[in-house]
């Protein structure tokens, strides 16, 4: 999956505004923020979507979810946030490398069908 844009970000071939990194996970600011806080949390390893994740990925997915509140607070969303995982065609997924959107700010977000 060498031409996957998020794999290229993981490899440092495309710059990102990084907010967190460990051995397995990278988090960075969405390039087109739709809220005052808009982060993406991704696995470093290419997983195409939630639909193709396997039971072996569960601990990794758990860690990614666990990071969301921490990164939201760090980014200034101190009173909650919204996390979204667009999956496949119906979910409107545009980048086919699993990612959790973390959206927030200092005011309640509008109700939205797609983040
Ligand atoms: P999705 O529709 O869930 O696949 O969302 C993909 C997200 O990736 C969109 O919100 C894009 O703005 C974001 N995105 C695409 N390319 C980049 C990039 N190079 N750096 C940061 N975010 C990106
Ligand atoms: Zn990828």
Keywords:
alpha+beta, 5-stranded antiparallel beta sheet, 115 residues, 3 helices, binds adenosine monophosphate, 5 strands, globular, binds zinc ion
Account of the 3D structure:
This protein is of the alpha+beta class. It is 23% helix and 21% strand. The protein contains three helices and five strands, in the order αβββαβαβ. The chain has helices at 5-10, 58-74, 88-91, and strands spanning 18-21, 25-29, 37-43, 82-84, 100-104. Strands 1-2-3-5-4 form a five-stranded antiparallel β-sheet, with helices on one face. A hairpin with a 7-residue loop joins strand 2 and strand 3. The longest helix is centred in the middle third of the chain and has 17 residues, at 58-74. The radius of gyration is 13 Å and the shape is globular. 24% of the residues are buried. The model has no long low-confidence stretch (mean pLDDT 95). Bound molecules: adenosine monophosphate (AMP) and zinc ion (ZN). Adenosine monophosphate binds at residues 5, 14, 16, 28, 30-32, 40, 86, 92-95.
Describe the secondary-structure layout.
Blueprint: H1 5-10, E1 18-21, E2 25-29, E3 37-43, H2 58-74, E4 82-84, H3 88-91, E5 100-104
Antiparallel strand pairs: 1-2, 2-3, 3-5, 4-5
The protein binds adenosine monophosphate and zinc ion.
